[in-house]
Every structure is written in C-alpha cells, then in structure tokens.
Amino acid sequence: MTRPGLLVIYTEGGRARGLGHVSRCSAYARYRQAQGGRVLWMLDGDDLATSMIADCGEVRIGPWQDESAALPDLNPAVAIVDSYRVSAAVVAAIADQAATPVFIDDLQRLRYSRGLVVHPALDPAPLRPDGAEWLTGPLWQPLRPAFWSVALRGPVRPVVERILVTLGGSDVHDLGAAIIRQVAHAFPGAHIDWVTGDGSAPPAPGVTAHRRLSDQAMAALMLEADLAVSAAGSTTFELARCGVPTVLLGVAGNQQPNLDHWPDLCGFVDAGRSDAADRSARIQAGLDSLRDPRVRAVISDRAQATVDGQGVRRLFDRLQVPTRKAAS
C-alpha cells in the first residue's frame, strides 16, 4: 500500500480568536495520520492552540495568511486551508503548490480557481462561480474522532438533570459566569457542566468546570446532557451528532449561518448575538422551550439525523478522485 503524501494544514486560532478552526482541522490531521501520512501545520496561533494539536503532526508557528509573509515551498499532496484572514493572493499561491487544495469556507469569502471547497453551512445563497468544486451542507462538517461513531440517544429524561454550557475553547467575550448564573437560576436542581478555557472558579453551586477536554471527554459530557447552551460555532455540529437540544448564542460574526439555519434543521434555539440587548431574555426563552421532554425528544432525533459524523471520511474518499481544474 502506498503511503499517503504530505498533508499541510494552514489555519489560525488561540485565546483571542477561538479554537474552532484548529479543532475541526485536527479531525483531518488525525484521519491522515491513521492512514500513515505525514501532517504539517502552518499555524498562526498561541500555546492554547498548539496544546490542542500536540499529537497531530509537526507544527510551525507564525502568520502565513498575508502575501507579505514568505510562504514556504512545501508542495503537499493535499493542502487544507481554514482561515478568515487569508488573502486571495496566498490562496492562489497555496493552490499552485498543492496537488489538491482544499478550502474550508463557511462564508463564501473568496473565489477559488481549483480544488475543493468545504462549505458546511446550509446556505441558500448561490455559491460563487469559479473553478473549484463546492461540497456543501452539514454532512461535510469535519468532526473529531470521538464523534465519528456515536450511538443514538436513549429515552429522554422527564426532568432536566444535566446541562452543558460551552462558549468556545477560549470564551473570548467572557460570557461564561453570567450565563452559568442564569442557567442555574432557571434550573436550580440541575447539575451544570461548564467547558471553559481558563482557570476561573465555578460561579454557582452545582457547577463543574472542565478545562482543555479531549474530544472523547467532550463527547461523554454531551451524551450525558439533557440540554446545552453553546456558542454557535463548530461545536454546534458535535452537539447535533450527540443529539443534545441546544440554545445557540452567536459570539462571532461568522456564526450567523448556524443561527439562521439550525432552528429549521433540527429545532435548536436561536438566542441571537451575544452582544444583543435582549440576550438574557432570549436565552431564558430558549431554556423554557426545552423544559418539555417531548420537545427535547423530537430535537434529539432530528439533530442526530442531520449530522452523521462522516464528513472527514467523506472528504478523504473524495480526494481519491482527481479534482476538477479550471478550464485553460
């Protein structure tokens, strides 16, 4: 069997920007490693980001997204680019180097002359006409290994006993304590699992703080949760995979597509933007709507039917077929 060629992942993340890009790209890295391939990261990030991918390949730290930076001549078999800062010129340079370039683009930011574009959002807007092939919808979302195979949830508990609160790997807007207190007040008898990136003490009784969780530990918490309050980033897909009824909060502009589409997809609640004046009222309305076990049961079933956890495998299966290049 021929050993797979070099996979280079170009991405960014850390305390100030969140870890969504790094987290989802780590799924591609682990799959490639399982195939026996070499993985190299070009990472614009900090120690929090590097700790997440410590066993996912070689890592080179530094800004790579702007044409003023010297892009190393790596000539990878596959290049995966996941960035909201990368310039069109650097995208073109990476596409020229790689045998197969892959671009993770939630926002349809750029035009791509060749390769594959993974667009996990279910977005009704027309995709950009270009030379790349677009792979669209939640089934293409890269999930970490613990979410590749998840059993269907059992019977829904009649009373909410466990609630998961996760606002991104770094909680860049420091929302955790306020939301924890609101959730604790709404469900005084429930235990709250709070996934946080820092060392803050739990702000209320009955709260367990979890830091720097592995994907296995995160999946275990999700499968125990009766409902969740979550940032509307890539964690949304993991929650859906585990069938967790969720109140979604937008903590970054790029999360708007998830707020727009997930209520219709499976019944997740759109609580709006984190900086909105009515944030608390919208979160409360979402929590109240999920008290009914019949509502939670329907959402759980629909969520698990929406995401099957096979987005990473789907992409690497697709890479076995030559990609379509732009006409000369």
Tell me about this structure.
The protein is an alpha/beta fold and 328 residues long. The chain folds into two domains: 7-143 and 310-318, Rossmann fold (3-Layer(aba) Sandwich); 147-306, Glycogen Phosphorylase B (Rossmann fold, 3-Layer(aba) Sandwich). The protein contains ten helices and 13 strands. It has helices spanning 20-34, 47-52, 88-97, 176-186, 215-224, 235-241, 256-266, 279-289, 293-306, 311-318, and strands spanning 7-13, 39-45, 58-61, 78-82, 100-104, 116-119, 133-136, 162-166, 191-196, 207-211, 227-231, 246-250, 269-273. The strands form two sheets. A seven-stranded parallel β-sheet has the order 3-2-1-4-5-6-7, sandwiched between helices. A six-stranded parallel β-sheet has the order 10-9-8-11-12-13, with helices on both faces. Helix 3 links the parallel strand 4 and strand 5 (100-104). The chain starts with 6 loop residues before the first strand and ends in a 10-residue tail after the last helix.
Offer a few descriptive terms.
globular, 31% helix, Rossmann fold, disordered C terminus, alpha/beta, 328 residues, 10 helices
Topology:
Layout: E1 7-13, H1 20-34, E2 39-45, H2 47-52, E3 58-61, E4 78-82, H3 88-97, E5 100-104, E6 116-119, E7 133-136, E8 162-166, H4 176-186, E9 191-196, E10 207-211, H5 215-224, E11 227-231, H6 235-241, E12 246-250, H7 256-266, E13 269-273, H8 279-289, H9 293-306, H10 311-318
Parallel strand pairs: 1-2, 1-4, 2-3, 4-5, 5-6, 6-7, 8-9, 8-11, 9-10, 11-12, 12-13
Helix pairs in contact: 4-8
